[in-house]
Amino acid sequence: MRGRWILDSRGNPTVEVDVYTEGGFGRAAAPAGASKGSKEALELRDGGNAFMGKGVLKAVRNVNEVIGPSLVGMDSLDQKEIDMKMIELDGTENKSKLGANAIVATSMAVAKAAADSLSVPLYYHLGGALAQTLPTPLLNVINGGAHAGNELAIQEFMIVPWDFSSFSEALQAASEIYHYLKSYLKEKYGKSAINVGDEGGFAPPMRQTREALDALVNAIKKAGYEGRVALALDAAATHFYDQEKGVYRIDGKELDREGLLELYEELIRDYPIVSIEDPLHEEDWEGFKEAVKRLKIRVVGDDLLVTNPKLVKKAIEEGVANAVLVKVNQVGTVTEAYEVVDMAKRASWAAIVSHRSGETEDTFISHFAVGSGAPAIKAGAPARGERTAKYNELLRIEEELGRPKFARDAYFRT
Ligand code: PGA
Ligand code: ZN
């Protein structure tokens, strides 16, 4: 096993791990978030001056000097045992000793090495013969919040191409809409409006939530896909919540929980929105319950649940959401992330496998989405190499499966 640092899509260092077994090889890299939930597993950074404090040499050393030697002799097919061994070695609640970046890159590389040693595709290794369905993509085409230098409070404005018979047709529609959107933005807001944010979506100089939604509706119509492509939002509301004053700053206003829920109700009435992620700040479990009852669409927990099986279990019991975002690096191991997808399925929640805003060329999540049978994937815009890497891998998986299924509306059908 060997760890090293490589650069992520924001130009920051991250951990990459190579795993060699007797008959296989796997390589995987940790992604990195910018608008993180406070309860996420810890990404170990060096501090100091190098890389503005973001170096990962300690995490790399943990891979090479602690994790690697401890896993020698274990079987890469025993993913669970290997993940539990790393959790034990770390010994902390949030993987802060060895670093979740060190652990997750190893965990994913082990899965890839196991698939390689069996000479089967990774999605098949993860899901077996049941891995037949391609997820519905949620593509983030307008970026705001912590991911862009504009005034939009809502972080992600996504299109959801669902009424198609295959993933590739859905992706084609998304690409066409993306280009109609580009022309619309250029014409209405000028050339600078087509600069892109961290996830490949445009970051136009808009101030109002409705401006972004109008732009999406226009592009969908122009492309000829009205009724076949829905909208989804990631509010990431923790990041426009003023904790001291107890208000949300959005659209030039200061709203309390009730005001924000009313705003969502109006938006859902006026636009084809099928889900809202983190509609309220991450501590407001009561507010989330209220959102599930009132909004009657998928209410997705990301910062709220941080892919943590314990939190997801509690949230299911209490009805705090009805969908969960699944980011392998938020929890740190493939085993725990898989458990979250399983829990969601049993509770009739939707699981959305997700990238991070800081990504690499790694396509693990494409295989994980198909392998775990999650009905949806969110991997950014249909642009920027680290985003298209995920979608392109899904095209290849679709081709390889021969007669695959497409999840269509399985994501938002409640
Ligand atoms: P992050 O955000 O990867 O920057 O944390 C993505 C999201 O909030 O879904
Ligand atoms: Zn989110």
From TrEMBL:
Its cofactor is Mg(2+). It is found in: Cytoplasm; Secreted; Cell surface. (2R)-2-phosphoglycerate binds at residues 155, 327, 356-357, 378. It catalyses: (2R)-2-phosphoglycerate = phosphoenolpyruvate + H2O. It comes from the Archaea. This is Enolase. Substrate binds at residues 147, 156, 277, 302, 354-357, 378. InterPro entries: Enolase (IPR000941), Enolase-like_C_sf (IPR036849), Enolase-like_N (IPR029017), Enolase_C (IPR020810), Enolase_CS (IPR020809), Enolase_N (IPR020811). Mg(2+) is required for catalysis and for stabilizing the dimer. Binds a second Mg(2+) ion via substrate during catalysis. The gene is eno. The keyword Disulfide bond does not apply. Its main location: cytoplasm. The active site is at 199 (proton donor), 327 (proton acceptor). Catalyzes the reversible conversion of 2-phosphoglycerate (2-PG) into phosphoenolpyruvate (PEP). It is essential for the degradation of carbohydrates via glycolysis. GO terms for biological process: glycolytic process. Residues 131-414 form the Enolase C-terminal TIM barrel domain. Keywords: Cytoplasm, Glycolysis, Lyase, Magnesium, Metal-binding, Secreted. Belongs to the enolase family.
